[in-house]
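User: Okay, second chain of the day. Same drill as before: sequence in, structure tokens out.
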Amino acid sequence: MKAAVISAFGKAPKFTDFVAPVSREGFELIAVRASALSQFSKSRSSGSHYSAEGVFPAVAGAEGVGRTEDGHRVYFVLPETPFGALAEKSLVRSEQCISVPDDLDDMTAAAIANPGMSAWAALVERAHLQKGETVLVNGATGSAGRLAVQIARRLGAGKIIATGRNEAHLQKLARLGADVTVPFSLGMLHPLGTKTYEQALKSEIRGGINVVLDYLWGESARTVMAAIARTVEDATPVRFVHVGGASGEESIDLPGAALRSSSIQLMGSGIKSVTLQKLLGAIKHVFDIAVSANLQIATRTMPLSAIEEAWAAPGKPRIVITL
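Assistant: Same drill. Structure tokens below.
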């Protein structure tokens, strides 16, 4: 069969032939229709994600949409090694497949599953968001952050603050549910950027904040925590949920005083901090509301034969490989 095959750790996939999987008990043999190139899928496939198995050569792709042998249309995740989602066929444990609603097309289902799941799991499973609470999405202009704004609104958040580097993209989030947008510019080229960002955050959270969804980590996350520690009233809990590291900064300098002088509850959300079954449940919830809530995600489709070009392309809009 044709597939996107990674030969070694850190390599990009090549469009080539790979042995096809064979059906066996407890698994679904899936004819793949679409697979999104999420950051999770790319890093796990190349071996750099903490959940990667590191077996090569292997077919790339950690998730997708397709049809089982009996014609059932499903979303699937974490195919059996060495079979990935970026191939004509994949092999997946039956319990790692969920039905796709009839009113949700293959491309949208593939694109929305991972970022939608990250937002739902962080808000519901980790932060236990309650209606009327204030949510800050740090890094709201990416695919996952945009969906987090929309899902938080659907779940009844009282106020949603969206932050990000791209001011033009931030302004569009007002139409998707953001009440306030806060742009920032950080790094060596912006020596006053951290102070400016912290001051802008303080003015917005002075009235209270309950949940932070952080998709960036790095300097921006540290600034958010500093603003909370210096602004939020004594002993008021703020659930800070770290979801992604799009900034590329793996570690931050976090003064102990920031934690001692506040009630920040610092936690992560993802594979292993949330069970796989609950993550699949989150995807099902997102699928169930995708059409009625008009959840929006920008996508670009490319054929499997163009995998090398697709792998190197920017992450926005989200690329969906079709078969």
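The two ends are 12 Å apart (CA to CA).

User: Thanks, on to the next one.
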